[in-house]
Amino acid sequence: MELLDGKKISEEIRAEIASEVKDIKSKSGKIPYLAAILVGHDGASETYVHNKELACAQVGFRSQVLRFEETISESGLLAEIQKLNANPEVDGFIVQMPLPKHIDEQKIIEAIDPKKDVDGFHPVNVGRMVIGLPSYISATPDGIVELLRRYKVETAGKHCVVLGRSNIVGRPVANLLLHKGYPGDCTVTICHSRTPNLKELTLQADILIVAMGKPEFVTADMVKNGTVVVDVGITRIPSEKTKSGWKLVGDVKFDEVAPKCSFITPVPGGVGPLTIASLLKNTLKAARKEVYG
Amino acid sequence: MELLDGKKISEEIRAEIASEVKDIKSKSGKIPYLAAILVGHDGASETYVHNKELACAQVGFRSQVLRFEETISESGLLAEIQKLNANPEVDGFIVQMPLPKHIDEQKIIEAIDPKKDVDGFHPVNVGRMVIGLPSYISATPDGIVELLRRYKVETAGKHCVVLGRSNIVGRPVANLLLHKGYPGDCTVTICHSRTPNLKELTLQADILIVAMGKPEFVTADMVKNGTVVVDVGITRIPSEKTKSGWKLVGDVKFDEVAPKCSFITPVPGGVGPLTIASLLKNTLKAARKEVYG
Questions:
Q1: B196 CB near a chain A CB, below 8 Å?
Q2: Does this model's pTM top 0.90?
Q3: B195, B97: one domain
Q4: How confident is the model at residue A246 (pLDDT cuts 50, 70, 90)?
Q5: What is the layout of strands, in order, in the sheet containing B187-191?
Q6: Chain B residue closest to A195 (CA)?
């Protein structure tokens, strides 16, 4: 059993990006520029945005956080997005979710210029990804595929079973692994809350991607020997063994499943650390105009 | 075994559309207007476009075919598309494929205003379909879903196995049947040329959708009793039994598979007749501004 070490791969990717930024800077003077819109003061959102800023600094990107009180109106926020769309210095930007209830998140996502949509949530980028055109792939599915690639996990002709059909993980990663080429060419099965015979299907998986948000749901009897397991879940549960009184667990019962696996992600330290690396990759693509020319 | 009679359903849909057109016309004077661009003189394309014109006439739509010689340049064709995009009278239009080799088909597809893209091939419409937003769904996947709906085929929790991962059939129909609600909530498996254990998977199918373009590929030993089979393939093969010396067959060996099925599409007369009905539905949606408001 080998760990799919997201922390290590994330550091590799960041080092590669930092070196490319130096290169671009020396050749053209250009510095990739990522902006983030943060509405309100949600603790988790503050942390995510802060970590993104740190990551930008680390690889040599320019970054800026635009903060707004949660009283901002939808039209006010849309106006701010238009400013970023129109600002030629900004290569890409994100709007940190969730947004206050009076703002329609889908409307906000669709207001972002697809060329600057480095979160990859705009329908144009989703459609381009599904069709197989160059696109910004959203962070979690991109991180999963990157992990498989960096560990040279075989994918062609393998049966990949995805648990969860969300628009941010299950559905896009299924579409990605279905494409021709590497990492891809998988037979793909997507299961979800309405699937009655989950275990019958997970036992067929050569690659099992779990994104259900159900702590320790996948047990040893649900996976065959030699499976590659990617666990996207992360939930805080009470624990008597830690000082804090809680611990983070994935959707997979790691201790009992890991011995049966050829590869498995730890939680934390699996897919999580790769999401910011994917955002940086997309911003670099945007700065280079790789997707839309 | 019951036949999924695409011809009958197509006539039902056309009758419904004709009645809605009368209704719209009497209320607002508006007549839905579909335009088609036809480049060159390919026999099959001429037939398709002609059938679309006939269907428009039958339901009371206004239609127009814009014909261009195959010497038209890409920029010339793009200019014609811009004219249709800008023409407020045209609700929707299609560009009949294939196009001459000197024209980039993807570029043409992306030049169509998504609001008028009644073929549903623009990345925005593909992305919206995948995410689950209102969109124009392309003709074949929409036809398949419509057949299941009209015959009240149970889909929730059923295992739908799709053979073929094309952008025009396999991939979109898989994404559609994965959505919440009816017809949807399927567990979905997508197989293709790189799948090594096809029979093992097809034997698990409650609903089997075949879109491979391999005549009579699916045999009786590959399906379990009671399966719903939707055959999208249509190939002309030599036959000693017909006067013409050929016959049309699907991807499924109908005679031996049909007795095992609860429902099965005939070929011809299954999905085929529904594709034009789907195009008419999309044009009606466009005229009513149902997708983009």
A1: yes
A2: yes
A3: no
A4: very high
A5: A2-3, A261-264, A227-231, A207-210, A159-163, A187-191, B187-191, B159-163, B207-210, B227-231, B261-264, B2-3
A6: B157
